[in-house]
Write a structure and sequence with these properties.
The complex is a heterodimer.
Chain A (H helix, E strand, L loop, with lengths): L3 E6 L8 H10 L25 E8 L5 E8 L8 H5 L5 E3 L5 E3 L9 H5 L6 E6 L5 E6 L5 H4 L6 H5 L5 E5 H18 L4 E3 L9 E5 L16 H36 L3 H5 L1 H8 L1
Parallel strand pairs in A: 1-10
Antiparallel strand pairs in A: 1-8, 2-3, 4-5, 6-7, 9-10
Chain B lengths: L7 H24 L26 H18 L7 H6 L3 H13 L2 H10 L6 H20 L22 E4 L5 E4 L6 E4 L15 E5 L6 E6 L4 E7 L9 H7 L1 H9 L8
Parallel strand pairs in B: 1-6
Antiparallel strand pairs in B: 1-2, 2-3, 4-5, 5-6
Classes of the chains: A alpha+beta, B alpha+beta.
């Protein structure tokens, strides 16, 4: 399996929001008008209807200067994905290319993933199921699964006019990130690559001009302990316990059969049944 | 939707042949001491016909022919059982003729050969062509440093094959790739590779709706075309030979529209 990754160079993004439009367009997402809240940013954050949002931050540099910070915000596709861990229906999976996808037909809308996502990306949204009913299902960026498995780059990456969003193997992207970091350092001394180890690295990673705090990103995101306990300990134990129960039932069934052999017929009252029928 | 018109089986066969070819190339690279100097060359004609001695020794070429034939025989039961025997019996003079004929793309010579040896008419030329490619690719790899200075019109600067496809690389350059010898060379973006026309009013594109990654660049001046692969839209890195096959639908479209010279 080759891991692929989307690399976002925040230092060269001009905030054109082409990625937002391309995403809505390819994934056929509905319009979600939000009230003006005093910033240029169109949406508060990513949700089930808007899979990527261009975050706009007004930033004061150390020398007292002013800088616009624009960040393409979308699912991080964590290698050790908390959403995948907590999903009780196994509706969330990591594909052979490393992107994390949600099977809308398996999802029951329990929102465990919503509460456990370290980056607050996954959200419930309307989904029309097989019966034509509108139900609430967990939705998020799937890194354009339908495109990348056909050899096409994700819609946001294709539309980006500055190559700020690039898609390729994780190895290539890391190399590119290092090259771009060296250039970015000249202008932004605090520039860094944000590929947090707490979730075992992400398959969408950033080159940030400032530390993660400047973008309201967690400094060291982790898979919630409850999720680890649930998936790595409780569930296997539960399955073992279930296995034990099944074994006990099966043994009871066989022993019953064995010991009741011979006179089981009378006890079942076959004769009575026949007489009542008549 | 995948607009590819070539069957999966055939693509797999071609991928297999390409793997064999890269193995052959490694082997001949070790044995063949080939050195090509820019100063010895006339930079107005392709490199291959200018080489003083034959770059394809008969014994190595025979090995390549046998490797390709054996691979084909293993892949398909329809191929005549006598094939391996026939190619193993090739004499040195015959091999020299094969090399010449395959470089010249002399289909008639191979048709006659097939007839005389009771083989399918397509088979000898196919094998000869697939076996010559590793040698051409080796020659091409020795010319990398100066190939950009070879100015030939309408052919590959290394082997003389007509250009078939180009890639639009990340910074927007048009890089031509020869599917035969794998030479790559850069060309002015807005000009016809066949006739040099750079009047933009006579150049335009034909696209296929289902195909996002490739399109056809056509020239009204010479009524010829070239296939363009946009590497910004795809992250897969494929060999030129394979890309040429996978974009065969574009050749159909272009030729139906009346572009391209049949004699190519």
């Amino acid at each position: 399996m080759t891991a692929y990754a989307k690399f976002v160079d925040v230092t060269i993004c001009t905030g054109c929001r082409g990625c937002m439009v391309a995403c809505k367009n390819w994934n056929d997402l509905p319009i979600d008008t939000q009230a003006y809240n005093g910033t240029y940013q169109s949406h508060d954050k990513c949700d089930g209807k808007t899979w990527n949002v261009l975050q706009m931050k007004e930033f004061e540099t150390a020398s007292g200067g002013f800088e616009w910070l624009f960040r393409h915000q979308a699912c991080f596709h964590c290698t050790d994905a908390a959403c995948e861990k907590v999903c009780p229906e196994n509706a969330i999976t990591t594909t052979d290319m490393g992107n994390v996808v949600i099977d809308q037909e398996k999802c029951v809308g329990c929102s465990y993933c919503v509460y456990n996502c370290p980056f607050e990306i996954v959200a419930l949204a309307d989904y029309v199921n097989e019966d034509g009913k509108i139900v609430q299902r967990a939705q998020k960026c799937d890194m354009c699964d339908s495109r990348i498995h056909e050899g096409l780059v994700p819609a946001c990456s294709q539309t980006c006019p500055l190559d700020a969003i690039v898609f390729g193997t994780k190895e290539e992207m890391r190399k590119l990130a290092e090259e771009r970091l060296a250039i970015a350092k000249e202008k932004f001394p605090n520039a860094m690559i944000y590929d947090p180890p707490g979730v075992d690295g992400t398959n969408m990673f950033y080159l940030l001009p400032e530390g993660p705090e400047a973008f309201d990103l967690p400094v060291n995101p982790k898979v919630p302990t409850s999720a680890v306990i649930w998936k790595d300990y409780a569930q296997p134990l539960g399955k073992m316990a279930l296995g034990g129960t099944v074994m006990a039932v099966a043994t009871a069934f066989i022993t019953n059969k064995l010991f009741n052999k011979g006179h089981g017929h009378d006890e079942e009252g076959g004769d009575i049944d026949e007489s009542t029928k008549e | 939707m995948n607009p590819n018109v070539v069957s999966e089986d055939y693509l797999l066969l071609q991928k297999g042949i390409m793997e064999e070819q890269s193995k052959i190339k490694e082997r001949i690279e070790a044995e063949l001491q080939l050195e090509i100097k820019k100063d010895d060359l006339n930079l107005d004609i392709p490199v291959l016909p200018q080489l003083p001695s034959t770059p394809v020794p008969a014994n190595l070429y025979k090995e390549a022919v046998i490797t390709i034939s054996t691979f084909l025989k293993d892949q398909s039961k329809e191929i005549e059982d006598s094939l391996i025997q026939v190619v193993s019996d090739l004499k040195d003079e015959q091999l020299v003729d094969w090399v010449k004929a395959s470089i010249k793309f002399d289909t008639e010579y191979f048709h006659n050969f097939a007839q005389n040896n009771a083989l399918a008419p397509w088979l000898p030329h196919f094998i000869a062509e697939q076996a010559i490619r590793p040698f051409l690719q080796l020659i091409s790899s020795k010319c990398v440093s100066f190939i950009q200075d070879v100015h030939v019109m309408g052919t590959c600067p290394c082997c003389g094959e007509p250009p078939r496809l180009a890639k639009l690389e990340n910074k927007g350059q048009k890089i031509l790739y020869c599917p035969r010898c794998e030479t790559q060379w850069e060309q002015k973006r807005l000009s016809c590779v066949h006739c040099g026309n750079d009047n933009h009013e006579n150049l335009f594109y034909i696209g296929v709706q289902e195909d996002e990654t490739s399109k056809i660049e056509v020239c009204k001046s010479c009524r010829n075309y070239i296939k363009l692969i946009d590497t910004k839209k795809t992250f897969l890195k494929k060999q030129a030979g394979l890309l040429d096959l996978e974009t065969l639908h574009l050749d159909f479209v272009a030729q139906e529209e009346g572009y391209g010279d049949e004699s190519h």
